[in-house]
Amino acid sequence: MDLEKIQYNEKINQIIQNALSKFRQDHNEFVKNELNIAQNTIQRGQSIQWFNNLNKNIIENDFFDPKSNYNEKKMTFYVKSFNHLKTNTCIFQKLIDIEDIPGLPKYKENTALRLNVIKNDEETLRFVPYIGEGNEDSDLNLHEIFDIKIKNQDKEEIMESIDLSSILLKILSECEITLSLLYDYYLDSRTNVLVSRNFKEDWVSFLKHCKKNYTKVSLNEKYYSILEIFSSSWNYYMPVELWITIQWVDKISKFRTKDKTIVLNPSSSDPLDSYSQLLCIFCYINECPYHDSFVTRLPDLSFQMEEPYDKEIPCSKNCILNVSASKDVSQSEWTPDDISILASSVKVLNTCPRYSCLIALGLNKTCVEIFNKINNDSFRIFLKDFHNINNTENSLKNNKIITYQKILGKRKRWTSYPDDCDKSGLSTKRAELKPCDHLGFCDENCLCVQNRVFCEKFCVCPSNCPRRWLGCLCKANKCSTWACECVKWKRECDPDICISCDSAEALDPTNRHNPEILALTCQNVPLQQGIGCRVILGKSNISGWGIFIGEPVRADTFLGEYKGEIISHNESERRGKLYDKIGISFLFNLNKNQVVDATRMGNKFRYANHSRKRPNCFARVSLVNGCHRIGFYAIKDLKVGEELLFDYGYNQQTIHFVPLELWEKKDKPNTSDKDKKKNSKSIKKSK
Question: Which reaction(s) does its UniProt entry say it catalyses (predicted)?
């Protein structure tokens, strides 16, 4: 047995060494080839990709030209050309004196956003935050706030694991070992897994992977010895441990198998199935980053994925291509419902060359029967009368809708809703929208009933559900007061529901910059329009940076939207403790479960400063197409150059985070310079 072990060990070592040598050789050849191409390109005087926009390079430090007068203050630069002519060029540049300019306030880099972005909770601390000089972090307790996990496996190691996983299956086949046996070996209680430097975290994920994909069996001594030899040999020669590498085998294999299936079978429903799984019901964008993680599964579209009927392929045995239409075939009885369905289908599918085959899918008839029925003279007369009747019914139906809306508008709209919809207009007491997805009317198990809110247009419940939001019945240009139902419930008008107020006209892109048309349409869609006032970022008179109005503005005018990352309240608590130590924060409560954080991502309104006594604008949370959004509005008429200020709503415990206002400083002349310096450093913008 020992001799067999030695021989097998030598065989394993040889196989692994050969595989690793070939793997490195292929990589080296690729790198050499790319470098040779780049070298030949440079020798021909051409520019390679990364030198396209660069043809000169400064190779000498700048210094004063000794031949020039001191008053001219000329400096000399030597540059070397990358062209085929190897020449040095001397350039003289005269210095220009610049007057002293006050420095800009301190700021932190952030990403500009067009829309709010959903962010998941970051429970794992991936770096130690810098909280500034002189701040003590002993009372911060990062271990209590975050689940600290040190990632020893860096990106290079992960990429090596992925590359080696591609050759692992080939090596296993040469060594006559299956992947399932390898998993059983690592799941065996005798296997020592503590040799890994990051065994705790990665081993837990590895066990979860094994539990999901494999069933553990007990290994006999023979297989255990063989697998132990293979594992030790792999770990000795390869840069990445074996049990880390095999975690990527299934992931890579699944992607490759899926790609092959799609290529070999183009009619497969897998691509469309994954496409529909990731579809956002709010904006119909796949993997939408702007709305919550609520996605809906579309109905099975396998029929739509099938190839359309070919002109020469019959749809069935009794297809019109196999049986002559004039030949007598068994005729089934036509019911009035069948005739009505046939008439409606012919109206839609009459331009399709195989319309009889397509209609046969919806009726329990053959396409020959359908073809003969359609070409019957009596049916053609009925078809003409049927379309006329339908047009009459549609016109009557439209009149009924208009009449119903007029009657409903004569009474208070909110009386038609259940009494338990009282939280619909309270953003602080309601959560983000989660549409109900049950069949039938809403009951005590409905999410909308449990949350005490309206059913929205995204809900699956019937359109005549008593909880369904019906919009407003205002006339054009009248949705600006509390008489409008949408304004009363702190919502913007929905162009799909609010028809009478011309909200669709207001949101038409062709009318976006036409003030004459916008003045005659709905006035309760500013966040959807996205047309705010011009604001300018500049040095604030209160603290740091601020925003200033760039055009004359009247009271109650929409100024702009406060944008940032949408995070949970738990995540805002974790971030808030760090922001409190740094002295800055841009947290803004959005609803019961969500907060907008503009620290990392946002727009200019993140720089709006605090004023308790003299604010000139205010913030309001509105429900816009199923999502809560924050808009800023003017309290009074504003002149060009005024700084936008609003009340942060701080209590006595947090008011010290903002600096004293200019008029407050005049009232307190005894404030020491030390306190002023301390206040100027501890600026916190938390709304």
Answer: L-lysyl(27)-[histone H3] + 3 S-adenosyl-L-methionine = N(6),N(6),N(6)-trimethyl-L-lysyl(27)-[histone H3] + 3 S-adenosyl-L-homocysteine + 3 H(+)
Q: Are 674 and 636 contained in the same domain?
A: yes
User: What separation in angstroms does the CA of 69 have from each of 63, 72, 73?
Assistant: 14, 5, 7
Q: How far apart are CA 104 and CA 98, in angstroms?
A: 16
Same domain, 6 and 90: no
Q: Which of 187-191, 583-587, 648-652 has the highest mean pLDDT?
A: 583-587
The tally of domains found in the chain comes to 4
CB neighbourhood size of 423 (10 A): 16
Cβ(564)–Cβ(116) below 8 Å: yes
- Highest average pLDDT, of 110-124, 136-150, 240-254, 372-386, comes from 110-124
Largest CA distance in the chain: 113
Going by pLDDT thresholds of 50, 70 and 90, the confidence category of residue 258 is: very low
Q: Does the pLDDT value for residue 574 go beyond 60?
A: yes
Domain assignment of residue 280, yes or no: yes
The pTM of the full predicted model, rounded to 2 decimals, is 0.54
If asked whether residues 34 and 62 sit together in one domain, one would say: no
For 622, the domain range is: 538-681
Q: Do 542 and 595 fall into the same domain?
A: yes
Candidate from 279-283, 417-421, 566-570 with smallest mean pLDDT: 279-283
The CA distance from 275 to 545, in Å, is 44
pLDDT band at 40 (very low <50, low <70, confident <90, very high): confident
CA distance 251 to 253: 6
64 and 26 in a single domain? The answer is: no
Give yes or no for a contact between 186 and 45, defined as CB atoms under 8 angstroms apart.
Answer: no
Q: Is the separation of the CB atoms in 526 and 631 below 8 Å?
A: yes
**Residue 545 belongs to some domain of the structure:** yes
Residue 599 lies in a domain: yes
In this structure, are strands 117-118 and 565-568 parallel, antiparallel, or unpaired? Answer: parallel
Q: What length does the chain have?
A: 687
34 with 64, same domain: the answer is: no
Is 488 among the domain residues?
A: no
For residue 635, the model assigns a pLDDT of 94
DSSP string, 151-187: --S-HHHHHHHHHHHHHHHHHHHHTT--HHHHHHHHH
Q: Are residues 646 and 585 in the same domain?
A: yes
Q: Are residues 656 and 614 in the same domain?
A: yes
